Amino acid sequence: MVHISEIGEIFRQEYGRSVAVLVRVLGSIDAAEDAVQDAFAEAVARWPDAGLPPSPAGWIITTARNRAIDHLRREASGRDKIARSALLRSEDAALNEETVLIENTVEADAVEDNQLRLIFTCCHPALNRAAQVALTLKLLGGLTTAEIARAFLIPEPTMAQRLVRAKAKIRDARIPYRIPSGAELPARLSSVLAVAYLIFNEGYAASSGTGLVREDLCREAIRLGRLIVDLMPDEPEAKGLLALMLLLDARRRARTGPDGGLVLLADQDRSLWNSELIAEGQSLVRQCLKRNMPGPYQIQAAINAVHGDAATLEETDWRQVLALYEQLLAVEPTPVVALNRAIALAEVDGPAAGLAAVERLELGSYYLFHAVKAELLRRLGRTKEAAAAYLEARERTDNDAERSFLEARAKALTTTGSGPGGQSSADPPGP
């Protein structure tokens, strides 16, 4: 017996790859999405009783393709039907080859290229940056409209309208579904990197659901990061982003306890950190330093390389971390970067200095603003205010693991008057 939740998880994992393959065949993002949704409905009807197919990924693509082709043939008529059927037969053969590769669990360059093509299509200069990122998160990351809206801190209906307009722009402007030529690549790079990082962030700290981490999105973002570096090996920011994701992902196992609960950086068992990923990330950081062309992702990677060097929290070179955040704030002056800087400042100059920096920020809708404020208040002994800030943070996240952690911190303060010991350091939330 296959549970509906298991089917849903499979579709979240395979959504981006399936849509990317079908866009090439159908020539329409909307048609590809509809086809994958039809396949999901079919799986919900069949799989609970029949069980999982040998290759769920191959089944999804094949079923979605067949539903889409049936629909197109029903819609076509006369000469249009004959022409469309001939085209579909040609495209069908190519897709069958890809499906066989997927069903045999062989890594197919063609499938990866489809995803990279879709990323560059979504990141076409005709779309504004917010639309580029949102659409790629939807199509490649498999995120729901609600999850993307939370990532952008905007209402869900606003995000839904943005996605509709972005797809219409691609359709009406006939934006080609291809990887751009070498001369066109640099103009698209910043958007493509932003997309990969946002996919990673949603995996590293899921905005909703029961678990803190979505490993499938972390893996997908890193895989895309590697593809981008292979495509553009001389772009230091591409290497910086890959290094950043590797260094953060290296800590993933230590970020949750046996019960799935959140574990702060200060309390993590560093023996669980992945030394191979740290070594690879730090090697990429060194390569970036040699180029001497610093950018936001490279600086963030350098910050996390410092964390990776420390065997214990006390051994962390916080002055270097703070200096790097100062540099990051100069090139990317956002409130969230300033919040990260305040965390480092509290470690160097004390929690009062950190709290003063936090209270100057306008991030009232961001749960980590309240969580960081609560930790600093707790360290200053202002337990009543800290408990209230923890509860405020809890109300501003939809992730069950985070909500449980924040509620437990608030409860510890109200029952003991001092709460859990230790420092407040947490994994930086990122810009």
UniProtKB/TrEMBL annotation:
The RNA polymerase sigma factor 70 region 4 type domain, residue ranges: 119-170
This protein's name: RNA polymerase sigma factor
Family: Belongs to the sigma-70 factor family. ECF subfamily.
Positions of the RNA polymerase sigma-70 region domain: 11-76
Any single GO BP term: DNA-templated transcription initiation
Species of provenance: Arthrobacter terricola
GO MF terms held by the record: DNA binding; sigma factor activity
Region annotation Disordered: where it falls in the sequence: 411-431
Pfam families (alphabetical): DUF6596 (PF20239), Sigma70_r2 (PF04542), Sigma70_r4_2 (PF08281)
Coiled-coil region: none
